[in-house]
């Protein structure tokens, strides 16, 4: 819009400066739901660039002890498979974890992660928690009913819980629009999810979970390489293989042979296997809980 | 000379240097990747050779011819390739190793990100 100088002054006087460059005004004609999602997208991009606290960070603050409580509650559940070994010595889940041999420890962690994610995040109670900030009082009871930013909040919640169980730093999670479904930046320890392919309405929950678990597996690989003592279940040779691969990573190209090369790398092969295993555990736990 | 003989002769793309130049220009690949793609195209299944030659010579090609449900158009739309030239390698894979290729096409695309500017640009794209 080009205005003569005198009209421009009048326009500026009547229209206060907007930090968002007028984006909110542009969105004024959107429906309420669309506007919320649009504004959340802007908030998310600000969060990603400045790490300023926002609603989602509050939802999943690392200082929040409730994450430990939620994990302990799942582990102490009488019907918990992971909690079986805990009941014998009646100790907290952290203490028991230190006593286990590496193989049992891995199995325990994976089982507990599956149970916690199935009972706390990817379930009716989890969807209700993720949508608890809605102003109209409605709550989602299924994945499809969650708004896109709420799905992102659910993944952030899942990451906080999983990182605690695995004994690593939780990753910030951002949403973007790219050619990939998901990505992990080992330098910044950040998980990135593609909005149209994972968070937008109509995408399958299982596929979104698989993408997310794949990136979580990369976060765990990075943590195991940097902090070997916290991951005794990862052998020295496997750690070395991951470290070398991260330094000589081959991104997936466009042709099939290039994609094959990318798929056969140790970190991709292992992340794929771990993501499938985690998805299977979560779905199994969810079915088991529903049957009870 | 048949299509198959032409493809195998290494001369079907014209002068190798010129062919490489064209692949590099059209797909943005470096010389090593471009040469590899040239060889991959030369080795495609017989039933695809006419398509590859047709595309190389600038003739019309059938964008909707399906192999196990996947066509050139679908591969491009689904974002597996941004250029027609790479779709031939997927169609070839679908003909030779259908199970493996279908599995690969159904998997989410997940990658390590090393360029922070790349991630920041993607976040910006989403915000706008």
Cross-sheet strand order for the largest sheet of chain A = 1-3-2
The separation of the N and C termini of chain B measures 53 Å
Q: State the share of residues found in helices of chain B, binned by percent.
A: 55-70%
**Content of β-strand of chain B:** under 5%
Largest sheet of chain A: 3 strands, mixed
Quantity of strands of chain B, as a count: 1
How many structural domains does the protein architecture of chain A include?
A: 1
H and E order of chain B: HHHHHHHEH
Average pLDDT over all residues of chain B: 84
**Low-confidence spans of chain B: pLDDT under 50, at least 5 residues?**
none
Structure report:
The complex is a heterodimer of chains A (about 290) and B (about 130). Chain A is mainly alpha-helical. Chain A has helices at about 5-15, 25, 30-50, 55-60, 65-75, 85-90, 95-100, 100-120, 125-130, 150-165, 195-200, 205-225, 235-245, 255-265, 265-290; strands at about 175, 180-185, 190-195. Chain A has one domain. The longest helix of chain A is centred in the C-terminal third of the chain and has 26 residues, at about 265-290. In chain B, helix 2 (about 15-25) crosses helix 3 and helix 6 (about 85-95) crosses helix 7. The mean pLDDT of chain B is about 85. Chain B starts with a helix and ends with a helix. Chains A and B meet through helix 3, strand 1, strand 2, strand 3 and helix 11 of A and helix 3, helix 6, strand 1 and helix 8 of B.
Features:
heterodimer, A: 292 residues, mainly alpha, three-stranded mixed β-sheet, B: 128 residues
SSE inventory with pairings:
The complex is a heterodimer of chains A (292) and B (128).
Chain A: H1 5-14, H2 23-26, H3 32-50, H4 55-59, H5 66-76, H6 84-89, H7 93-99, H8 102-121, H9 124-130, H10 148-166, E1 173-176, E2 182-185, E3 190-194, H11 195-199, H12 205-226, H13 236-247, H14 256-263, H15 266-291
Chain B: H1 3-8, H2 16-27, H3 31-42, H4 46-56, H5 72-77, H6 84-96, H7 98-106, E1 110-112, H8 116-127
